[in-house]
Every structure is written in C-alpha cells, then in structure tokens.
Amino acid sequence: MKPDPPVYKLRLNLPYYLFTRDPGYPGVNTNHRITLMIKPRALPLAALLLAPLFQASLLSQETPETLLLKAREAMREAESLALRAAGAFDRRGGEHFKAGRIKESVADFDMAVKLDAKREPWHWRRGISYYYAGEFEKGKKQFEGYQTVDSSDVENATWRYLCMARISGTVTASKGILKIGDDRRVPMRQIYDLYAGKLKPEDVLKAARAGKPAPPELNRRLFYTHLYLGLYYEAAGKEKLAREHLIKAADDHRIGHYMWDVAHVHANILRAKEKKK
Q1: Which of 149, 237, 226 is CA-nearest to residue 191?
Q2: Residue among 154, 176, 152 at smallest CA distance from 164
Q3: d(CA 15, CA 11)
Q4: Would you call 8 helix, strand, or coil by DSSP?
Q5: Cβ neighbours of residue 192 under 8 Å, at least 6 residues apart?
Q6: Collapsing DSSP states into helix, strand and coil, what is residue 37?
Q7: 181 burial class (0-12, 13-18, 19+ CB within 10 angstroms)?
C-alpha cells in the first residue's frame, strides 16, 4: 500500500486518503471494481466530513407537524418583534411631538398602532397629534375610541369637542359633547360644564382656587385651567384671550406631564405665527 499522502495534499487527494480497494481489508469485494472501503485510520475524518450529509438527510425528512411547530415559533418571534417595534415607534412619536414635529409624530403613532392594534383605543396622544396636524375627523374618531376604555376623563371629552368645533362649529360641539362619569380632578368638572355651555370661564378659575390648596396642587389646577380656557377661547375665535391663557399655562405653571408638552408646543406655534406677521 502506498503511504498516506502528507497533510498538505489532503485537499487534493481526499478519495485516496479516505478509501481503499485493498483486498486485505475484510469485506472488500475484489470482483467489483468500484467497491470501496473507508480506511480504519480515516474513520474520524470521514465521520466529520459526512456528518453534514446525514444531517441534511434528516432535515429533508421533516414531517408536516414539525414544520407547523417551526412556523408557529417563527410567528411568535415575529409578533414579539412587532410589539417591541411598536413601543419604539410610540416613544419616538412622543418625542417628535414634543419637538414640534407634528406630522412625524402622527406617522410614528400610526405605525405603532399598525404594529400593535391593541394600542388604538388608548392612544389619546395620537388624537392630540391629529388635532395639531389639522386631521380633525381622525382626531374625533380617536377620542371616541378612548371613550370606550375610559368614560370618566373630562380631557378626552374636551379634545373631541375641539375637533368637532373645527368641523362643525362650537354650538354643535357643545350639544354633542361626550357624556363623562366622575372625574374628581379639580377643576375638571367645571371645565366640562364650560365646554357643555353650562358655566362661564370665571367659574372655572374660581373652582381652581377654592379650598386653599397647597402650592403644588394649586399650580397643577391653574395649569389645566389656563390650558383649557385657552383652547376654549381659540375654538371660539377669541385669539387674544386664547394666547393669554395658553402662554400662561406653558410659561407660568409647568407640570411634569405630557399635557405640559402640549401647552408648550401650542405656545410655540402661537409665537411662530406672531413672528411671521
């Protein structure tokens, strides 16, 4: 028998290295020219090289049941990735809005809802972005959706009112205001009654200051009072009063809530309009 080739010839002479026709090896059929046997010393290498072939053979024998399990696993992974992506789009949409990039915030909020449909009824922030983007019908629909998951939020009713006022006027908006349950935040009930046509703006201010609240609570009350008085006056076409209250909400009564960002964005819009005059 010829000596095994050196290692540097292994790639060029694998058949010789692995196989033999030597009749000295048991089981070799000397009458069949192409009968081959793996050399004993080459068994480890043969196993290493042939293993992928056996594995491929096994994979090709997958049953419908195993394929279905793999498909379900892939679907679960895809759903998980979609939910994570929805959260990322949602967060970026909020940041876009805070920076005054209204259209970008709408696009990201829409994508978040598309990827995770369960977010849709809860997404009041998307409704506010719709309002500032001038998409009042979409905003109205969004706030109507939120009403199905929280029927005791005065702010939701006021934002739907604001969208309706842009579409069909304040009288229609006031008559069609959503019915709200018990929103105990002061002065939310008075704000609601103002938008419903039952109270005057001074009634809201009086309610906000009632009861000698502590400074942080008074600041919070006055923020919401001036924000919603400003929006109320703007819907009524009273721009000077609207600006006075909206600027006061943004500049004098900051709170740690997304609604302050709304006031801040609105104030910046008013200031930008003034610069163009």
Answers
A1: 226
A2: 176
A3: 9
A4: helix
A5: 154, 157, 158, 177, 180, 183
A6: strand
A7: exposed
Task: Give the integer Cα–Cα distance in Å for 195 and 5.
Answer: 95
Measured CA to CA, the distance from residue 208 to residue 191 in angstroms comes to: 10
Helix extents (H) in the chain = 14-18, 43-59, 64-98, 102-115, 124-132, 136-147, 154-168, 170-175, 188-195, 201-209, 215-235, 239-252, 258-276
Question: Are 139 and 163 within 8 A, CB to CB?
Answer: yes
CB 165 within 8 A of CB 235: yes
pLDDT tens sequence across 41-83: 555 655 666 666 666 665 567 788 888 888 888 888 888 999 9
Which residue, chain included where needed, has tokens 């109320």?
232
3-state secondary structure of 50: helix
Please, are residues 115 and 85 in contact by the beta-carbon 8 Å criterion?
Answer: yes
- Report which residue type is found at 69: L
CA nearest to 144, candidates 180, 114, 174, 175:
180
Q: How many CA atoms lie within 13 A of 107 on its CB side?
A: 5
Distances (CA, A) of 37 to 11, 30, 44, 45, 55: 19, 11, 14, 14, 22
pTM summary value: 0.76
